[in-house]
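Recall that a protein's primary structure is simply its ordered list of amino acids. Everything else, from secondary elements to tertiary packing, is in principle encoded there. The following example makes that idea concrete.
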Amino acid sequence: MRTDMDAGIGTSDNAAANQLDRRSRRTVRLLKQSFRELVEEKGFEAVTVRDIAERADVNRGTFYAHFPDKYGLLDLVIREKLQVLFSARLGPDAGWRRSDLRLAIVAALDHFADVYGGCRRRESLHPLFEQAVQQELAALFGRWLAAVPAPPETWPVPAATVASATSWAIFGAANEWARENQTVSAEDMSDRLLAVVFGGAAALTPGGLPD
């Protein structure tokens, strides 16, 4: 039988857990902020875990309690920025249709332009940056394709392959565009990518690609 004392202990445990969770979230925020500042100041390769911990005013043990190394922190920062960018561009009902693919392409171009055009220090981030961009695009397209009302046997190729191929097409072109200092306008680049993606996606989607 549960007593009032048991209930009080449970409430106290919950409060302590919530406080610990808030403290953990605050620590992660400080680590991310410190990391971003240091990368801007000295470049990713020169930043150490000690630097990040000292800037965030925590010890290295606290850092390692949240991240395996600075690459794990980098991956989180990149992916969160991408997810925020996609959320800002795309509505809650976004899906596998031409209008939303256009918005996703524009968001990817904006992200590449910001990273490669905003600060020369950021160029050292590109291996993990590039991997994260392609993976986040593939995950986004995978979710959209999963909602397409078509049985698996009606797809000319598996939907996962469509998501992967589309993400690589956008990623590769956007990456090259950004590295070449955007010699073509973002609008023109979007139109070129849209023509390629729409043609392939429409052919591979059962029933065609909705507007």
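The CA atoms of residues 203 and 209 lie 8 Å apart. The mean pLDDT is 83.
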